[in-house]
Write a structure and sequence with these properties.
It is built from 16 helices and 18 strands. The strands form 2 sheets. Strands 1-2-3-4-5-6-7-8-9-10-11-12-15-16-17-18 form a 16-stranded mixed sheet. It has a two-stranded antiparallel sheet with strand order 13-14. It starts with a helix and ends with a strand. It is 28% helix and 22% strand. It is an alpha/beta fold and 485 residues long.
């Protein structure tokens, strides 16, 4: 079989977006013959995920005396604590063609030397929750990646001076993330961005379009204003978390300085209130496509209605928000919304039962048909092809009643595709069922509540038979979830 046909077959089998993708099919194909095995190496080693120290050591033995590491493009390391120096250096030196490198809970002990590696194609470097890793591995990885486009560091024991040095070595980065998805270990470390970090980003990273400022615990108005004035016009995605020392006046610059912003996340800002949120969304509303509000003291989110082009909305841990109609009470708002996630809003309730009757037939209309003159039968030609039709007796016109369909609906976002309701204990099952009947196009529904009746589950599956539906009930003795039987 020609190699071109083999490659075409392997391309089909390795399509990870396909629903029928299975790595086992690639393994079986590689065992057909030596020629198949040679062609399949590029697909078998394209993405490598190592979830333990034992797997990492086995991977190193496989590539140490071979060229298999040349095919690796995406490498991920998870939970590899106390990784020895030999294993670490072998992985870095034998995989020069990496495109992405993901490290989570990785610790190299002892770190005794330098790695002589070079990653000309590396575009994404993500280091997450590695508090025991020293600064030297970070520096060597960044120095060996001159074309790095994305740098994400979270939960690592790095000082602000060390972060500044890393930023100075990434002049081509466009996506900078500081402390994204931070966990408990993040607060125990010194990885917080201040004004000096902001100045280094402005001086050495001119191409940034996506910025995650989760760890700006020590940044003040001067640093935040500098970032907004320099990058505001080119920012597309912005995430601001734990901006403890940034004033309300400086936060308003998000709306004034970012005309191209489409993705916005605001979280854990203690002085964020309804007025400040309205001021920000008043400027960004017509252009936002993604909005996440998390752990904010907001009593109303009605200002979200200004986001006319919003596609995805996430509302998480808004303990003071209690009116569901703020976002979906007006059918003319949020017409393009496709994803809605509401997590941990215990006081959220629907004050009035929503109305949704798209096939309600109530209106009657009287219509009079047009009158057409019929010629006299004496004037009609008699031919064999068209014999004379005898005149019909006259019948008086009787008005006919026609029924017209009208839509009575008080719920917005008719094209919603995905809905997740978690920890909203004040919502009643009857109200949720009305929402499901409204969103007939929904393809995914996730529901977590204190209790779920069998009638609700049966009715929900009847209303949306083709929807990927998952309903869970909170356990009474543990915080884990148990599926409703």
């Amino acid at each position: 079989m020609p190699a071109e046909i083999m490659i075409h077959v392997l391309d089909f089998l390795s399509n990870r977006r396909s629903k029928t993708f299975s790595r086992l099919d690639l393994y079986r194909t590689a065992l057909l013959s030596k020629k198949w095995h040679k062609c399949a190496n590029a697909y078998l080693w394209y993405q490598v995920d190592l979830s333990s120290r034992k797997q990492a050591e086995s991977f190193c033995r496989s590539i140490q005396n071979s060229l298999l590491g040349m095919w690796v493009r995406h490498l991920s390391l998870y939970n590899t604590q106390a990784l020895d120096w030999t294993t670490w250096s072998t992985m870095m030196n034998k995989c020069p063609g990496l495109l992405t490198l993901y490290l989570e809970r990785v610790d190299v002990v002892p770190f005794t030397g330098e790695i002589h590696c070079f990653f000309p194609k590396l575009r994404s470097l993500v280091i997450y929750e590695c508090p025991k890793m020293q600064y030297l591995p970070f520096e060597q990885l960044v120095q060996a990646s001159p074309n790095l486009k994305r740098l994400s560091i979270a939960g690592c024991q790095l000082t602000e001076q060390e972060l500044v040095q890393l930023v100075r070595m990434t002049p081509r980065v466009t996506d900078l993330s500081l402390g994204s998805s931070a966990t408990a270990a993040f607060f125990m470390t010194g990885s917080s961005g201040g004004n000096e970090f902001a100045k280094a980003v402005v001086d050495h990273c001119p191409h940034i379009t996506c910025m995650d400022l989760t760890g700006i615990l020590s940044m003040t108005d001067d640093g935040f204003t500098l970032l907004m004035q320099h990058f505001g016009k080119q920012l597309v995605k912005l995430q601001v978390k734990r901006a403890m020392q940034v004033s309300e006046h400086s936060l308003l610059q998000i709306g004034h300085q970012c005309p191209k912003l489409t993705h916005l996340t605001l979280a854990n800002i203690p002085h964020m209130d309804d007025t400040l949120l309205e001021g920000i969304l008043g400027q960004l509303g017509p252009q936002l496509q993604f909005l996440q509000l998390e752990s904010l003291f907001l009593s109303s989110v009605i200002s979200i209605r200004q986001c006319t082009r919003l596609l995805e909305l996430r509302l998480i841990s808004l303990s003071q928000w209690g009116c569901f109609e703020d976002i979906l009470g007006d059918p003319s708002c949020l017409e393009h919304l496709q994803t809605l996630l509401i997590y941990e809003c215990p006081d959220l309730e629907i004050t009035a039962l929503p109305v949704c009757s798209h096939a309600h037939e109530t209106l009657t209309v009287e219509q009079t048909p047009s009158v057409k003159e019929i010629p006299d039968s004496d004037q009609m030609a008699r031919t064999p092809e068209s014999p004379l039709i005898p005149p019909q007796p006259f019948e008086p016109f009787v008005p006919r009643m026609y029924v017209k369909r009208v839509t009575t609906c008080t719920i917005a976002s008719p094209d919603l595709q995905r809905l997740e309701l978690v920890g909203c204990f004040m919502l009643e099952e009857e109200q949720v069922l009305v929402l499901l009947k409204h969103w007939q196009k929904m393809s995914k529904f996730f529901y977590l509540a204190a209790s779920i009746t069998r009638d609700f589950r049966r009715e929900a599956r009847r209303v949306l038979p083709n929807c990927d539906m998952n309903m869970y009930v909170l356990s009474h003795d543990t915080p884990t979830m148990q599926m409703e039987e």
